Amino acid sequence: MKIKLFDLLEYNQHANQLTIDLLVENALISPPKANELFSHIINAHHVWNARIHGKRNFFSIWQKHSPEVFEEMNDENYLVSKKILETIELDRIITYKNTSGEQFENSLSDILFHIINHSTYHRGQIMLKMREVNIEVPYTDYIIYKRKNAKT
């Protein structure tokens, strides 16, 4: 399971980087909602990393950022999550409060999978927004990532 989560985390980093490149290259014509959605992806990832460590998050869930800082923020999230995956047992229960202040408990493996799934969901929305303004988008599907990165 840990190996699969490492693989999915690497995929998420790759797909996020493709999305960042798209948003930066088209910064002048990208729909504002696309940038808002990517900001949300990196903010939510940051918030989950903070919850896992029992720390206070620096960014709110829907705080907006400019495309110029996306890569740095995304890389930081990735490195923190990678370290979490390397050092904390997957079955560890994480107790946290959601944005409404309600307390919940989930396993680390469920939280890490949620981060990846949440990112995939919103990247799809970003790609739709970009296509609506006739911007050609990259493929960020997991299976395409696996085809391109297959070990031969």
Description:
With 152 residues, the protein is mostly helical. The chain has a single domain (1-54, 67-150), classed as Four Helix Bundle (Hemerythrin (Met), subunit A), CATH 1.20.120.450. It is built from five helices and two strands; from the N terminus they run αααββαα. The protein has helices at 2-25, 32-53, 67-87, 108-132, 142-148, and strands at 93-97, 103-107. A hairpin with a 5-residue loop joins strand 1 and strand 2. Helix 1 (2-25) packs antiparallel against helix 3 (67-87). It is globular. Belongs to the DinB family. Keywords: Metal-binding. InterPro entries: DinB (IPR007837), DinB/YfiT-like (IPR034660). Pfam families: DinB.
Give a quick account of the main beta sheet: strands, pairing sense, barrel closure.
2 strands, antiparallel
Shape: globular
Parts with pLDDT < 50 across at least 5 consecutive residues? none
The mean pLDDT is 96
> What is the CATH H-level superfamily?
dinb family like domain
Give the strand line-up of the largest sheet: 1-2
The number of distinct helices, counting runs of at least 4 residues, comes to 5
Per the CATH scheme, the topology name is Four Helix Bundle (Hemerythrin (Met), subunit A)
State the end-to-end distance.
22 Å
Task: Supply the key terms.
single chain; 152 residues; mainly alpha; Four Helix Bundle (Hemerythrin (Met), subunit A); two-stranded antiparallel ribbon; 5 helices; 2 strands; 7% strand; globular
